[in-house]
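Q: Hi! First time asking for a complex rather than a single chain. Here are the components, and I think there are two in total. Is that enough to go on?
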Amino acid sequence: MPKMNLSHFEAALLFAFFTSVVLGVITKRSDRERVRYAVYCFVCFLAAIFGLSWLMYLGHG
Amino acid sequence: MAEKSKSESEAMPPLSKWVPAVLVAWLIPGGGHFLLKRPGRGAVLGASVACMFVLGLMMRGALFQPQGGDILTMVIYVGGFIANLMNGLLYILTVGLGYSQPDMPGHVHDYGAKFLVAAGLLNILAMVDAFEIATGKKD
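A: Yes, that's all I need. Here is the structure of the assembled complex.
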């Protein structure tokens, strides 16, 4: 199996994508709601990634 | 008495109704949904869990083994092992085919281990969803 080298950001994006898809599929009833919720979760993950990254950057000095 | 037995039966549906779906959902991610005739959702769930697991392997993530010691070590390693185990056949095949990546420093390996655990946790969510569909709590 080939070895994969990803940056922190790429790995976090993939994690966010698959987790959002599963959360969307299992929590909502209609397809439209599922897509909307998955997108919402993905955006929340992105906000957390950027927010926490800046927090760590600024906190590190 | 009759009320009591009625409430008990409402609290716990018969095993034959949900055990096959949950078992298949554990062994084959998304399989429980296929068994319950929800192929679209099953395919999406299965693909997501399998992709995450394979990405974890490609990043050479370590699989957890239960360890004793202090409480934090035990929670992390036993919890990680259970989460890995929840990948079903993916985990069984991976271990059976001899994958034994040691825990190494580096963010890629670290993410790999987290992907393997997260895939198992997502499969638990899929199993719960299959359970709810099988018992009629959800359509």
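A: DSSP finds two helices and no strands in chain A. Let me know if you'd like any chain examined more closely.
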